[in-house]
Design a protein that fits this description.
alpha/beta; QueA-like; 2 domains; 6-stranded antiparallel barrel; 7 helices
């Protein structure tokens, strides 16, 4: 398919600049992927689409304060956006400066940290922090929250809480898994009381999530790799639910990618056509650059809760694979007509993979 197949015009005023006043106060568009039918609902209606024994999978990654400002050893200003923490002292980062720094040069960030540029590969630099503190601690102390590039306002104190999910625990992402931002504790408690099983995966979201695809043929696009992990407990929850007729709802494209990456790893490691399709997932993790486009055969996830995504983005391609290209096009036209709020702080979309979830 061509990149033009995933383009659309979005009125700028529909790009949400702030979250809803309260978590859970968002609208939710339901797409039945089998029939293409659309329903305008509220996020508070989510429990009506679930039943006891279903598994809902959250990405428990936590956004780090990944943006740092400073100067180069030559005196010019520099902005560093950490893409990934590699170890106690080293990070992978993008650098914005008037001239690209060379390996061996130094940066002085936040008036507190000396950094050495070790190397560069494509858009990212490997940097070494010359400080006794661990990188992750330094970022929390001196860094700034990296709001998405389409949020055209300064970071506010409230963003440190509202641009994190209520269940975020594992530091490492540079962008929030935004479908999870709709959940508050009362909603989680309600789902537990219903008998819905709560499970977690980790996928540390990278800045590539905001990058448009720049090749004409999407098959030529290459994803940046991201760290993911799927626990033994989550795998057992999913296998048990599948065996008993339950469904798996992924909260966000990152949860879906982690689950499908784990399933793909299982199939490479232990191909066996006699195994149940729903059981084809294993615990573990590592790096994934899984790129899900129309035609992909989903192994684990039955339903997807997501937000509305950028034109020409890999995330729009993923939801098109899940919900059907024409269904998603129609749903997005409907969302624009009905003035849904788009992107990270926007409204939600619930997609049923094979059946009406009512």
């Amino acid at each position: 398919m061509k990149i033009q197949d995933f383009d659309f015009d979005l009125p700028p005023e529909l790009i949400a600049q702030f979250p809803a006043e309260k978590r859970g106060n968002s609208r939710m568009l339901h797409l039945d992927a089998a029939s293409g039918a659309l329903q305008d609902r509220m996020f508070a209606d989510l429990p009506s689409y679930l039943r006891p024994g279903d598994v809902i999978v959250f990405n428990d990654t936590r956004v780090i304060k990944a943006r740092l400002y400073g100067i180069r050893d030559t005196g010019g200003r520099v902005e560093v956006l950490v893409e990934r923490v590699l170890d106690r002292q080293r990070v992978l980062a993008a650098i914005r400066a008037s001239h690209s720094p060379k390996p061996g040069s130094k940066l002085f960030l936040a008036d507190a940290i000396e950094v050495i540029v070790l190397s560069r590969e494509h858009d990212f630099y490997t940097l070494q922090f010359e400080h006794e503190g661990a990188v992750i601690e330094l970022l929390e102390r001196y860094g700034k929250l990296p709001l998405p590039p389409y949020i055209s306002r300064p970071v506010e104190k409230s963003d440190e809480q509202r641009y994190q999910t209520v269940y975020a625990t594992r530091l490492g992402a540079v962008a929030a898994p935004t479908a999870g931002l709709h959940f508050d504790e009362p909603m989680l408690q309600l789902l537990r009381k219903m008998g819905v099983v709560m499970a977690h995966v980790t996928l540390h979201v990278g800045s590539g999530t905001f990058q448009p695809v720049r090749v004409e043929n999407i098959a030529d696009h290459r994803m940046h790799s991201e760290f993911f992990e799927v626990s033994t407990e989550t795998v057992e929850y999913i296998r048990s639910a599948k065996a008993e007729g339950g469904r798996v709802l992924a909260v966000g494209t990152t949860s879906l990618r982690a689950l499908e990456a784990a399933a793909a790893t299982e199939e490479r490691a232990e191909p066996d056509d006699k195994r149940e399709e729903g059981a084809r997932i294993k615990c573990g993790g590592g790096e994934t650059d899984i790129f899900i486009t129309p035609g992909y055969q989903f192994r684990v996830v039955d339903c997807l809760l997501t937000n509305f995504h950028l034109p020409r983005s890999t995330l729009l391609m993923l939801v098109s694979a899940f919900g059907g290209v024409e269904n998603i096009r129609r749903a997005y036209r409907h969302a624009i007509k009905e003035r849904y709020r788009f992107f990270s702080f926007g409204d939600a979309m619930l997609i049923g993979k094979t059946e009406d979830m009512d």
